[in-house]
Design brief:
mainly beta; 122 residues
Length: 122
């Protein structure tokens, strides 16, 4: 059992950067694989990036490779998403998710945060 709360979203100009945070409750944080997903208005929720429970394995969607970086801090029971070189097409609600299975997908994710809005202006 884990609860997730995202923060750090906002309005940014194209080419700018944002750092999203996902604070997780529960002392079993280290047992969960974590991921970030996003959903633009009128579109399906899509995978962005994931990190394994050990922090050793990471996977990125092709659309964000080289621009986004996921990291985790077990001591703070938090996961972060650093987003650089933002584009208008990155505009979406960003959700963090947790699961005990790998890989983490929209279908397999057991827990979701409430989401944080990221808007990139052109």
């Amino acid at each position: 059992q884990v609860q997730l709360v995202e923060s750090g979203g906002g309005l940014v100009q194209a080419g700018g950067s944002l750092r999203l945070s996902c604070a997780a409750s529960g002392r079993a944080f280290r047992d969960y694989h974590m991921g970030w997903f996003r959903q633009a208005l009128g579109k399906e929720r899509e995978f962005v990036v994931a990190i394994s429970r050990t922090g050793i394995t990471t996977t990125y969607a092709d659309s964000v490779k080289g621009r986004f970086t996921i990291s985790k801090d077990n001591a703070k029971t938090s996961v972060y998403l650093r987003m650089n070189s933002l584009k208008p097409e990155d505009t979406a609600i960003y959700y963090c998710a947790a699961t005990t299975t790998w890989p983490i997908t929209v279908s397999s994710a057991g827990y979701w945060g409430q989401g944080t809005q990221v808007t990139v202006s052109s």
